Amino acid sequence: MMKKLLFTAVLLAGTFFAQAQEVKYGVKAGVDFATVKVKFMGTSASASETGFFLGGFANIGLSEKFSVQPELLYVAISDSNFFSLPLLAKYAVAEKIGLLAGPSLNYFSDFEEDKLKLNIDFGATYDITEEIDVNAKYSLGMGDVSVSGVFIGAGYKF
Length: 158
Known about the structure:
The chain is mainly beta. The protein is 11% helix and 70% strand.
């Protein structure tokens, strides 16, 4: 039964990506305005920080209006540097405007425990040209130690 389920999942994934209309790769960078929250034994503390992010992405077109956009970003916030791996669904609401939503997995190399954190991201993009876009998203952190914030940046597609 498990082999059949795995085979079906692989077959569906292959069909899904085989229908991709176009794949574009790019780089992005920008500024982040983050809040780090820590909950411990009924008390909580938070601090706001400003930092930056940079990384790369692939935009995999599945239809004229829908695409998947995995990213790999390095995020630097004064006391918490981490790698973020968002897997965003992108829906074109107009010719140059797209909405983004999806999970992101964050790896905090400087944390002693619980190095992996899950966030939920929501955002939008605006294409200035075919190669250049501006983007903004809100990333909502989950768990006892969470990093949430607004990311504003620009991207360049090759």
